[in-house]
Design a protein that fits this description.
It comes from hydrothermal vent metagenome. The protein has 375 residues and is α+β, with helices and mostly antiparallel strands. The chain has 13 helices and 13 strands. Helix 6 packs across helix 7 and helix 9 packs across helix 11.
């Protein structure tokens, strides 16, 4: 078994997370490459700074533009569904969303109780009239005594989406536009439900490619009902020499053998201001274990109990998580307001860090449509 230092482990994880391609082209293809490399990009509603999916993609490629993502929807190269949370995923992986869809259609509960009558009405409207947003159902029908009840219609759309009857055709602003799957899916898309074994293998390979190294527990993060299956599949793949083990501080992790080549790659010591929902930081326990970085998003914490701020962003320097920044984009005024910067680790090259941080902050401000940074 190969032994890695924590520095080597962090390098493997950071480079696997696609942080070595800042020079990518300004193109739709480059954005698709980022999504395929990461496996998924989480979507979240909070907009203190640019929303999570945009932030994550920009962090990998500063040439990223939201129009690239719009084009990928139009080209049917990506789709939305539930990963461990709501996410954009590459269309090549659509097949693997079907297992969860079948489970929910078969009775597994997601968030809401099914309303079959409303679901039938909503789907019939989309069949007849075409793609719809939830807000399109808030109108007076021809029979003036009958009105759509907007919230049940919205929940029906979400349930139809989770069960696999509808897909998100595009986003208008942040609003989802739903349509029938058959109107969205490219020709020759695999639509057969995968087996549990095939699905577990996909999760394992996707996770290890994007995250470098993991335990079976990491791979099964927030995966309902299949943790034992993932563990069994990991064990089988290791027995078949498809995976290797490495140890870090006497703890064992699985790796894809070919990804260990990243340890030979040169790494620039640049600064990245990350989204709280970034793929690198989303598993908090893993961060403590491998990066000695204790992170919690505090927007869900009562104001009086917050230690750092409502929406503090992790700061990555090279392969170290060294601090966090509490800031807010005031887009109308063109100002990125920095409330506080927290540096939590001793940094060997303080001068380089300060220079790189200022460059990163200026770039982050422009990404958020802000021409000025105020403290």
């Amino acid at each position: 078994m190969r032994h890695l230092s924590k520095q080597q482990a962090r390098k493997l994880i950071v480079l696997s997370n696609d942080f070595h391609h800042l020079g990518k082209l300004k193109s739709v293809a480059a954005t698709l490459d980022s999504i395929e490399s990461l496996g998924y990009v989480q979507i979240d509603t909070i907009s203190v700074v640019n929303r999570a999916h945009l932030h994550v993609l920009w962090s990998r490629n500063h040439h990223f533009n939201e129009r690239h993502l719009t084009a990928l929807y139009q080209q049917k190269q990506v789709f939305e569904y539930w990963s461990h949370a709501a996410a954009v995923m590459p269309m090549r992986d659509y097949h693997f969303s079907l297992l969860r869809k079948h489970q929910i259609a078969g009775g597994d509960k997601h968030w809401h109780q099914r309303n079959p009558k409303m679901m039938s009405q909503v789907k019939a409207t989309i069949i007849e009239e075409g793609a719809k947003k939830s807000s399109d159902f808030k109108f007076e029908r021809k029979n003036k005594s009958q009105w759509w009840d907007w919230k049940p219609a919205k929940l029906a759309l979400e349930q139809l989406f989770m069960e696999g009857d509808l897909m998100v055709a595009e986003r208008q602003g942040f609003q989802k536009v739903y349509d029938l799957c058959e109107r969205i899916l490219p020709a020759k898309t695999v639509t057969a439900k995968p087996t549990i074994e095939t699905f577990c293998r996909y999760l394992i390979e996707r996770y290890l490619y994007a995250q470098g190294m993991a335990t079976a527990e990491h791979i099964a993060y927030l995966r309902k009902g299949i943790k034992a299956d993932i563990k069994a599949c990991v064990d089988q793949m290791y027995s078949n020499h498809e995976l290797e083990k490495v140890s870090v501080n006497k703890l064992e992790y699985y790796v894809l053998p070919e990804r260990l080549d990243l340890l030979n790659k040169r790494q620039n010591r640049t600064v990245h201001i990350l989204s709280p929902f970034d793929n690198l930081v989303i598993q908090r326990k893993r961060l403590v274990e491998l990066f000695d970085y204790d992170y919690q998003i505090e927007c869900y914490v009562p104001a009086a109990k917050r230690r750092f701020g409502y929406f503090c962003l992790p700061i990555l320097f090279g392969n170290e998580l060294v601090g966090r920044i509490d800031c807010k984009a005031h887009r109308k005024e063109g100002i990125l307001k920095v409330n506080k910067v927290f540096q939590e680790k001793n940094i060997k090259d303080e001068s380089l860090y300060k220079t790189q941080f200022q460059k990163a902050l200026a770039a982050f401000a422009l990404f958020n449509q802000c021409n000025e940074v105020q403290y």
